[in-house]
Every structure is written in structure tokens, then in C-alpha cells.
Records
---
Amino acid sequence: MMQLHAGATAVSDDPLHAPRACDGRAPDVFRPGGWVPMRQYRESEPVDFAIVGTGAGGGTLACKLAEYGFSVVAFDAGPYFRPLEDFASDESEQTKLYWTDDRIVDGDNPLQLGSNNSGKAVGGSTVHFAMVSLRFRPEWFKSRSMLGYGADWPLDWHEMWSYYAEIEQALKIAGPVTYPWGPPRPRYPYRAHPLNGAARALAKGCEALGIKWTETPLATLSAPRGLARPCVYRGFCVTGCSTNAKQSALVTWIPRAIAAGAEIRDLAMVGRVEVESSGLVSGVHYHRDGRWRFQRARNVVVAGYAIETPRLLLNSATARFPNGLANSSGLVGKNLMTQSNQAVWGRLEQEVRSYKGPPSLAITEHWNYEDRGKDFFGGYSYMSQGPLPQLWANTLFNARGLWGNSLVEAMKDYNHVVGLKIVGEMLPQESNRVTLSEEVDQYGLRIPRITYSWCDNDKRLIDHSLKFMRRALEAVNATDIWIQDDDTCHLNGTARMGSDARSSVVDADCRSWDIPNLWICDGSVFPTVGGANPSLTIQAIACRTADRIRALARRGELEAGSARPSIHRCSIEVQRL
Amino acid sequence: MNRPAERDLIAMAGIAASGLALASLLSSSSARVRPPRWRLAAPGRNRSSNPETVKAARRLNRAAGTLAASVLADSSVEHYRGSFKNKAMYTPLLVSALTLATSLHGTADMRPLAHKARDATYLLAAATGLVGSGFHLYNVGKRVGGFSWQNVFYGAPIGAPMAILLSGLLGFCSERVREAHRTRPRIFRLPAGRAIAAVTGAGLLGTTGEAGLLHFRGAYHNPFMLLPVTLPPIGAALLMSAAGGGPGRTHRFTRWWMRLLTGMGFAGVGFHAYGVSRNMGGWRNWSQNILNGPPLPAPPSFAGLALAGLAALGLMKAHPDA
Amino acid sequence: MHERRDRYPGYDVLAKWSGPSWNDKTRDVITRRLSIAPEPRFFTRDEYETVVAIADRIVPQPAVRPPVPIAALVDRKLAEQIMDGFRRPGVPRDGEAWRRGLKALNAESAAAYDKRFAELPEALQDKLLRAAQSGELKAAEWGGLRCEVFFKHRLGRDIVLAYYAHPTAWSEIGWGGPASPRGYVRLDLDERDPWEAAEAKDGNDATARRSNRGVR
């Protein structure tokens, strides 16, 4: 029955301990043990762009800039995985995808980090995200002037709509044939996946309450694409996809970036952005292979997500910028926004077995687009859920307080559990922020301290959603209904974009107001978060930023030396080794 | 019948039987020159009296059999996937197996006489197709979301039972053609060749709809997926024009097109096998990928219809007024 | 203690070990996990004994099967410095938090009952753990570590995660287990693939048992 053959697969290299992307090659994510050729750049010669982070923001931008002909080196503190051979079907093992470096959390509602919001791998959090790929509601880009809360974005939704379409194509999003909310959008490139039991329950509840629902647009393939296989509904999505069905940055933007001449440096932790006496940045100090190194660059893009981005800017303080880089507004690290992630759980007489398929196959954005009947600002969507056993057991223990026999018995109902969970908008508050602690991490860098407290509006939104979802579960005859009221997800803010240097950190092009060759391109730039998962919007902003950089370069408005993309593309032979 | 092991066996048997039968149908047609001994001997006086109607009838049997084989294999796989939740889900397996056997019998039968058991079986097949369509419509409609894309994609395939209906209709036509050794071959007082051409054309359009729907579900990710939604409608148009056109035409292009469709139907199995291999784990993960990948037995239904089209054209050639 | 009945009689997720649901990487990981011996590497003997006693109360296990070595699984995680990566002010890093919490629990036990935690009868162990859960323990040994924070975010979390990382627990709850390259085909309500656990319905074990025996 069971053969114990430890070490049957001789793993030649351990991506967690030795960098893989070196010697002119990078791992081929589509072939076990495979490699692709990769261009490499000298540290002493400035590259056009040094990008810190390779997730939804940095990975996308690295690809686009390289394809536009700029020389690009992108750094990631995490390992470079080949999902087909490196990912186990196991929750514990796959915690290797998460950012679990030391962090302090405080405030009235301290955040839970790690698994559900930060990744440490080439591809960033997209390696373990739930693949939910939603567009923002157009009004959210002007929530201050149109809806009366938060802050306006310096972006126009019409323009974003075309970038959304570009991303949806690039990731072959599998979505419904027609989307029930918002202005028209092009058809999703791939068809929606079949619903699982949990999604079916969400649909029934919505129909009973008279609101619309749809299949969630997901960045996982419903048909083959090149060397990537379609989804097999194994249900381990948020612990890493071992089939490459998930269209993470690791298997989409990064291979494209490398083919276009970008270099990826894995296990490379950037600790400081260097500022010259001219007041411009000149490169990044990074830790790799056991020592600190310096890469010269004409432009630096920080794309480390809403905690590591402000941490790096604050840790890069100099005599000239004593409060950290790009921080003349004092807003770096402030206005951190997570999204509320509360749930209502129950038990169905039928077998749900929600462990099958992507966790959130069905969604309703009703309360994102309907403003009547709300006693709060903002919106929320809610989705069907599919927690794996460890996550579910910890939810029962942590949120429901079960242990002992009551926990063991409750776990035996695992296959009957049905749940609905929101992604809810939280309002920006300056008091929710990332600062530096006095303690240091394994690199000797000061660790971040993340302070978070919900405001009254946040609580009213959560309350509204929990009442509504309870009705939705009652409508499908769920029993034993209970509420999980303390979870949060996604991280945004901390380097918001705006149209005024005094009230924002970067402009609409993600360029910092203070230092013209320092850019920030990730969820940090969000002035508000909306009630939708942010990854599609982060990628859309990255694509827009790349287009803007190209336009600025053509007009000669980039910093000295980077006025024109360096011509190097023809020197790359893109063929499999 | 609820035990998984037995369900496995039934599904496997269904697939195997349809494969074997298909092979023997095709081999019996290729051995046209010297009929093997086991063929039912025709009474001598009729053998020469009207060979064209019998030939056309046997070709129709073969077409009906090809369709039935496709249905047997397809419903085995799909209803196994549906865990035979409803006992009625065994019906198409039984009926298509019976239709297949009947068609083999008909293909081998040289006599210019309709056969009561064959007639009855073909009518049963047609009825099964109609009832099955009703079942499938009901199944889709009762799901949350009703007749939404989600349910049309992943619920019971609405068009699938039509294949057994077509098999039954073609078989029924075959019997009418076969017994028309003294009069002009007619079906419900219509000229038989033209009627069959029209039915086949409509069948091609319906099957195109089914392929179109499922290939849309697959987002036409491979350009070859466009073939079964472009070639068959042209074939349908050619058949319709043959059905409606004046006598005395040879329909060479139409016959050539039908052969093309036959080839496409069988090549489709190969394409679908490639599709299965492109799923995670490939053929090693067959227990999932046969069910989740493209359906292997579906494309030959195009071949079955194209063979029926050839039979109709042959009949029209032999009987210009048929 | 009430009687435990198998909800998924005869189901063993390890029966799928050589089938298409498990790949090499998963087999490597689970092989390592199953080979963990029930003895401490990170904890001291005394600490380990206390963790064993706590784990018995947080996730009681039936006597009829070999127990999951929960304490050893927690121990290895700490030894390998696999951490959550976030903690509240005043809370030490994971391993140090465990040491301090265990010391404090034993101090509470000694103060109240003049015994080590592991020597208490189950009812008193439960009583102490409930007091920790609701934040009532205030012994000096806790330092800046609040007992309810330790209980919820360290002690209980690590133990629960350790138990449900074990194939024995997966079989107990009827989870499909590792799934790659093969995932699932039948996804809807009340649908089940032949390679998933069958649940005993209406006290009828035999049908489920027969089906579970065929799981590969």
C-alpha cells in the first residue's frame, strides 16, 4: 500500500538556500529541472531600472519595461520555485511561500500576516493568492468626490478599463460570459470554471435573497495554455499551484520578462536604496549569497507590497532625507488599509466538500454596486469558501474557541461545512501605519511594526455584511451557523498616489514626488481599497506605469542617462537549454 | 447498481463494446467485394432486383451504428461521471447497445425486407433520444441559475441525446429504403434520399451546435477546434441543397465533403486524445482526464452523420427521384 | 468520554500514496513527517512532557489507534525555526514564547495544586487551560506575555496545526488529502469521486466501508 522511499527524487538544488537565477540562466517554471537562458547585468554599470519585488506590481512592471527595451534587474527576497517539482500538496510544507520574517503587530485590531497576505518568492503573493481577479467599481477611483469618503485617485477609470482588459488577456482570466455589474467589459478570454458545492450554496442564497451572483473571474486556466495545464480542481490554490494552472506572476510575467532580457535575482533582499548627493537615487544595496552587494541603477522601483515598501523607504533614511525616502508629505507608511475578511459559517445536510476546486468559485458584488440600504461608506463582495483542514481547524480553534472533544467532533463535519466570506473595504486612516521597530531581523534590518485599528465605519460595514450573509446561509437551510469576526486580508496604502505632493507620496505615474528617479509600483499606492481583491488593479497600474515610463523616456523626461531604452533585445537568444 | 466497482465495470464495458462494434462496422463495410460467409443471405430473386436500395439501407444501418457506438461510449463516460445518480441514466447505454447490435445486423443483412425487431429498436432509440433530451433539459433548468452558461456548459448536455434520436431516425429510414424494392423509396410519402439528406443536414447542424458550445467552453484555445464548427455547416448546406435541388445531379462535391467530414469525425478522437494528454498528469492521470478532458467518443457522431449523407446521396444517384 | 464512531469507516488517505493523487514532492514531505520520533529536540524533557499533556487536552485522541505525535511535530517546527512571522509587542518569538508559556503554566499548576501540569488529572488540566483561554492567569512567570494571547496564538494554534497536518487526522475527517497531479472531477453538492472518502450514512457503515476500501 505504502512505499516509503525517502529521497526518491534527488533534488539537485534547494531554492530556499541557494539562488537559482545565476550563471546566465533561470529556472524554467514549466519543466522539472529545466532552465531558460537569462541575460545578466554587471553591478557596476547602472541598469535602467532596478525593481525591488517581483509580485503583481514588480513582476508585471519588469516584464513590460523589458519588453519596451529598458534594461531591468528585479530583486526578490524569496526563492525561485519550479511549481511542478517544488510544490507539495501540503499546507505545512507550503508555508515556505509566505513572508514569515519577524514583524510586530499592534493596535486595537492587530493584523494576522503571513499566509493570507504576503508572499516571499519570485512572483510574490501571486504565487499563493486566491486568483480572484476583479475590476474596481469605476466610482471608487473618485470615491471622495463621488461617494463622499476616502480619497480620489489621480487616475481615470476609462483608462483603467483598458488596462484591466490587457491584464485579463495576459492572464487568460476564466470568467463568466457576461459580468452582471458595472460598465460593459470585453468577454473574459477563458470560460468560467464549474461551480463546486460551496459555490452552488452561495448561488442559491443569492437567488433566495433576490440579488445577483456570478462565477468569480479567476486567474486559473479553464483550458490549456502553452505549457500550462488547465486547473484540475485540487483545491490547494492558496498554498501554491503545482500544475501551473494558476496564472501567477511566476508563470506569466516573469518568463516574459526574462525572454525580453530582464534579469531576476532570487534570494536577494534589498535593504537600502542609495541616494546620491544630487538627491537622486543611484542603486540598491541587497543581500545575496551571504553578503551585501550594490547594484547601480538609473531608476529604482520599490514594489515590496504595503509593508516592505514603506519599510525599505524608511530604512533608507539619510541625513538629507531623515524621515525616509519620498516622505516629504510624512505619509510613507501611513493609511495602511487591509480589507475585512469576516465570514459566516454553517453546516449543510448535503456533502459540500469545499476542498475541491478553487476556494472562491462564486461571488456576489451586489454590495459593491448597490449603495441604498447601507449605513456605512464603501462596499464589500462576498465569496464562497474552501478552507483546507489545517486552516479550518485553526479557524474553529481561534475564532470559535473550540478545543478538546468539541474541536475533534466539529472537525468531523468538515465535509459539510459551508461558508461565505467578505472582502470588505476599510477606510484609510493615518493612524493605521507601518513604522520601524527597534528590533532587527536576520539581515540586521529594522523590522516593521504594523499598527491597525478598525474605525466605526469599518465596524458598521462588517456588521452589515455578517447580518446579510447569515440570511444567505439561512436561506439554504444551513444549520449551526456561527460568525468569524476577526479576519482580514490584503494590504494596501502606505505610499498613496495623488495629484498633490503634500497629500500623497507618488503621482499618477507611480513616480515619487520627492525623488524623480524613485518609483513605487504595488498595492502601496492605493488611496482607497474598495471591496474587491486588489491584484488585478495592481497589475493594471503596473502596465499603465510602464506605458507612462516609455512615454516619458521618449520625451526625454526620465532622469539623466535613462532617456532612451538601451538596445539589447536582439542579443538574447530565447531558446530552451 | 450503486457500488462504484460495478459502475466502473459498466462504463468500461460500454466503451469497449462501442469501440469493438465501431471497428467491426467499418471493417464490414470495407469488405464490400466479397461478403463474408456470416452475412445473412438474401433470397436470390431479390438480390438482383434492387441492389441499390439494399445497399443504401445497409449504409444507413452503418451510419446509425456509428452514431449508436458514439452514443454508447459517450453516455458511458458521461453518465459514469454523473455517478449514475438516477437509474434512468443506464437507459441510453442499453438502448444504444441494442441499436448498435441492430445496426450490425442490418449492415450484414442483404435482404430487401424491413425487419420488425430492427424497426422496433430504431423507434425505441428515437424515443429514447426525445425523452433523454427532456431529461437533460429538466436537469439543466432545475439547477441554480437555470439556463445559464454555467449550467449549459457543465450540466447535462442538452444536445447529446439527439445523437441517439438521429441514430434511430436513420435506422428507421434504412428500413423504409430497404423494403422499397418495387416502388420508389419514400419516407412518409417524401422521396427517401432527399428526406434522409435533409434529416442528416439538420443533424449536422445540431451536432455543430453541441461542438460549438463545448469548444466555446474551451475558449477555442486550439485553432483546430474551429474545424467542427465550420466544416459541418457547409456539409449541412450542401446536403440541404441536394435535398432541395432538381434530379440528375451527381453531387460529387457534396460526396467528397461528406468523406471529409467522416475523416474529421474520426480524426477528432485523435485531437481529443491529444487534449487529454495536455491536462495535468496526461494519460497517467486518466481517471480524471478522461472525464475532465475533451470527450473522446464525441467526434465520431460527425462521421456517423456524414456516412448517412453518403448513403442518401448514393440513393439519390441510383433513384433520381428518391 | 463519549464513544467515538468512525464517520469514514475504513478510509485511509495513505491508500492513495502510490496513486495519481500523490506526487514525489508530497511523498517526500509526508515521509519526513511520518518518520518524526516522539521525542524532543527543541524542548527540554520537562517541557516536552508538558506539551504532550497539553496536546492530549487540546486534541484528545482515541486509544484504539497509534497516536499522532503532536508534541514532536510542534517540537520539530520550533527546532527548524518555522515561524508565523508576526507577534504582538511583548510577545517573544515563537520558541521563546513556548518556553515562557510552559514555565508559567507549570507555575500556575504548582501554585494552585502543588503539582506539575502533566501530573494533574484531566479535569484540572482543562480547568487551567480554560483559565488561560479566558485570560485569568496572572502568575509573574508570564511576564509581558498575556496568557490568553499565548493560548490562542501560540499554544493552541501550533497544536491544532500539528495534529491536522497528519494523515491520520485527514482520514478521520474524510478529507481527500494530497491531490496532484490528480485533482477532482465531481465538484457539486453531494458529489464524490471514487478516490474520495465515503461517509457512513444512517448508521450504515458497510456501504461506506466497501467504497473506502476501493480508494486509490
---
Amino acid sequence: MLAASTSIFTMLSWGDQGYGDEIALGTLVTLQVSFLAYLLGFAIGLVGAVGKLAGGAITRGAFNVYTTLVRAVPELVLILLLYYAGSDSLNRLLGGVGLGPVRINALVAGIVVLGFVQGAYQTEVIRAAIQAIPIGQIEAARAYGMGPLLRFRRVVLPAMLPFAIPGLANLWLNATKDSALISVVGLSELALTTKQAAGYIKYTQGNPLYLLVFYALTAAIYLAISLASNQFFAWLERRTRRGQRQPA
Amino acid sequence: MDWSWLLVYYPQLLHGLWITLALLVLSVFFGMLMAVPIGFAQAAGPRWLAWPAKAFCTFIRGTPLLVQIWFFYYGLGILFPLIPELRTSFLWPVLREGFFYAVVAFSLSYAGYEGEVMRGAFLGVPKGEIEAARAIGMSPFTLVRRIWFPRAVRLVLPTLAGETVGQLKATPLAFTITVMDLMGATNMIRQNTYRTYEPLMLVALFYMIITFIMVLGFNWLERLVPQKR
């Protein structure tokens, strides 16, 4: 495929001569895993925050254990533990009902595992944001006779967002960066794709400077994702703060 | 559950624990050493210093640590052996080890995150205190040494615990570049014994215990510093 004398432009080109398309695909996988894991984390976060604030002793205790444990253990260890535990218990479950073992799709596993980790952090951010809502707004909604669900949808959710967005923005950046950790269970996202490309360069004894170019390019792609996200969240925060008093 | 491997492998785990702690202490030390000037340059430096400091923080905070580590180990680490002078120098045994690249990457990462925190702290010192120091005729250097820097450190102390725990949780990434830290030892045990859960659960417990001890330590440190509000 590639000769040792291949130029860097060929190495980065589209098609089977270079790694351009592989890296583009890896970027898409990274974005996909991060986004879906983030959404899953947000869903868990909403349930967790409400559970922690309004649940009974058992619910609160369970969510406390969840957020404390997940936040005290390194993400890498968690991802490995959850990946093996998750695929193992699923296969045992399938075995129990008489179905053969399945190979877990690395993409789905990555999303679920990263979402589970995100959920613990988002629970804490959303809980703090709900507690920051002036209590009068919630009492007013109650005085109007709104039921708990309607109150949550119309008052709590929009009122907590401006408080939650800075924290949630940070967690989105964490999600994009933590998605690189999924590479340890073999998902070919951006980081692992680059590592494979670099491995190929080394194997074919290509120019070692190309390795630097590939890693720098990958870092630049992550950086671009981060910078674009920052712009987006700044806009979103301005939008959710419409009608609030602006600090002088 | 089978824990019999623990009797065979506990020396590797203990050694891994030391490596993890060494990674943490070295990177926090060197990282903080860089973070203070980086933060100060952003808060009070001239534009030609503030801009690169800001760019450094943005770059570190905007890219995954894993990619940074790989950049140093697989990227730069491949180039070093090509320099014959380096290969024969006394530095070579160090430059060959993944541990060295891990310390460099973790230190720079910590410097990037803490540089941003220190920027906020330097800006957070009340203007009046700095003006008062100027008014009694302190030289700029004394002002920084006696007033600005100590006050900024006091401001970051409560956040430092969380940041350092975050750094501890980043150290297992070193195992991807062959460092035999806690995670590296765990991985070796997993491969040798074919047991998955027990080693991973044990290492998770290890990290939780270290976190717990660190939080206690930082609480003690914070109480040493009088804080009047």
C-alpha cells in the first residue's frame, strides 16, 4: 500500500493511499460517542437530580452512592470495569434465556459506559442548578396549582438552565476528551485511528516526523471541537439568560 | 470471586502504588511551578507574554490528555533515538522510559489547568490590597512576593483539593505508554491470571482510598491557613 518514501500529503490524502478518510471517520465516531453519551448523561442527570432532591431515603442513598463512587474512581478504570461487567452480565442474561453469547458493539458499549460516567457528574451540576432557582418561582408555580410534572417542565427546567449551562458546558468538553479513553476497549475513534496510522508509519519505517504531524493534527481536531463548543455554549447561555437581570 | 492471585502479585501492586504516587507528586510539583508564572502572565503580564500563556492553557485544556501523552511518547519519543548525541548521553536511560514522558505530559497538563485557575486567583486579589502595598512604597517584586502571590494561593487552596484529585484520576493513563503504575500492574495481573473484575475492583478501591486520604490532607492544610471573611 504505502512506500516508505510516501510524502506527508499522500499520507493525509483521502482514499486507500492515505489516512485522511480514516481520520475524518474517527472524528465522526468521536463526535457521535460524545454526543450520545452526553445525552444519556443528561437524562440520567435529570432523573438523578430530582431523585436526590425529592426522593425518599432509599432513592437519595442510591444516587449518592452512584455519584460518589463514579466520581471517586478514575474514568479509565470505570470504563474498563463497566465495559467488561456490562458485556458479561448481558451475555449471562442472554445465556439464561437460552440465547448464545453476543459480541458487544464497541460503539454502543462506549456510549453507554461514557453516558453512565457523565450521568454522575451531570446529576451534581443539575442538582446544584435546581437548588439555585429562587424558591419564590417554584412556590409561585405551586400557588397557581401546577402539578409536579408541569411545574418541572415549565418552571424548574427553564429556570435552572442558566445556572447549569457553565457546568454542563464543561462536562460536554469532558465528554469529547473522555471519549478518547474508549479507545482502550478498541473503539476506532479519533485517538485510536491516529495511533493505528502512526503504528503503520513506524512499521513501514516511514519518516518519523510524520508521527508528530499525525498526533498534532489529531490534537488540532480536538482543539477545534473544543473551541467551537465554547462558542456554542456562550451563545446558549446568553439565550437562556434572556429576560434575566444582567450583571453590571 | 477469587483473590488467591493477590498473594503472588502484591509486590507488583505495591510497586505500582509507588509509581502512581511518584507520578502524582512530581507532576503536581512541576505543574504548579509552571502554573504560577503562566497564571501571572495572563493576569498581569504584557500582551506578548499573556497571549502565549493563554494559548498554552487553551491548547492543554482543549485536547485529551491521552492524545498529549501519545504525542510525547510515540511522537517525540520516536525522534529522540535518531539523535546519536542523545543516545550516548547520560540522559538516555531516562529518555527511554515511558515514566519520563508521563511525568512531562502530566506536568504540562496540570500547568495548563492550574495556570487558568491561578489567573483567576491573581485577578481575584482585591485591588485595594495591591494599591495599599504600592502606596507604602513596596517594589513590584516585594509586592508580588509579600501580598499578591500569598493572597492568590489562599484563594486557590479550596479548589486545589479537587484539582489534585482530578490529577490522580488522570495518572492511570500512563499505563498506555508502558508505565507500570497501579493501572499497569493491574493490567499485567489481568493478562497473567485471566481474572477481570477482582484486579479492576481492587485498583478502583486503591484510587478511592488515595482520594480519601488526599481530601483529608487538604482539609487539614486549609485549616492551617487562617481565613477571615
